[in-house]
Amino acid sequence: MHDAVCKKMTAHKITSEVFAEKDDAETQKEGNSAVSKFFFKYPPHMRKNRTAGKEALEYDEDGDLILDRIEEGAILIEHSVATELKLVGLQIWRGALLLGDYILSHPEVFQNKTVLELGSGVGFDSIIAGTLAKEVVCTDVNLGGILRLIEKNFQRNKALVKSKVCVTELDFLSENWNATLSGKVKNVDVIMAADVIYDDKITDGFVKTLAKLLDTAGARQAYVALEKRYVFTIADLDSVAPMYEEFLRCLRRHKVNWSIEEIKLDFPQYFRYQRLSQLTLMRIEKKI
């Protein structure tokens, strides 16, 4: 397998490169499940909040301010160590960390907004958005107990989350939305998704779902993070990113009336991971 694919496969199961690169001291494993700490540097708006009162400050025995404890935090996430392709949402991938960086770098986009995440997986980016938003609506197809896992991860990080939280099912391959989701959609301000483009059928379903949301929700913009996973093919005699190309084909096939901008990745990196050149963050807006 080409190195740039950046994932390890063992006995038909996949392990995220994010987990493979983590320090063992940051993860507690039990069988195929794990709870990992994802450390991040506090962005300016979080540092300001934490140092607003004297009770937030900590000093050592010499009376010096302990900066590290103020400037760094951690998100606790329960996740799987290895999964089949259909259950990759039970892991964390680099696109989620990239989107997390963007959320922390651009609080004005998410502050006091209703945010809908598509394919929330273990809830990582929804938890980050929950530090800023008025309400976060987390959605995914309920395979492998994923919705319950999102709820557990929110509970683990309740000290960070300031927003209301709604966890409900959304299947990209179904045109029918449940009553909870249908009731929430009209109030959504921002849509986001990370690492949902990895399978032809799911990619097609994602495009159709996003198109329907942009037609019916209050939101007029979506942020989509992904990693262009390159493989060398004999047919092309070149390295290509097949799933990214399939995403573009789906856009043409469904004739969506969108403006798509690839955001420059020059915003601060708050989480610890390799920000590869293959990572992409798109801002998608419906043309008026």
TrEMBL record:
GO terms for cellular component: nucleus. One of its GO terms (molecular function) is protein methyltransferase activity. Pfam families: Methyltransf_16. This is Methyltransferase-like protein 22. It comes from Nasonia vitripennis (Parasitic wasp).
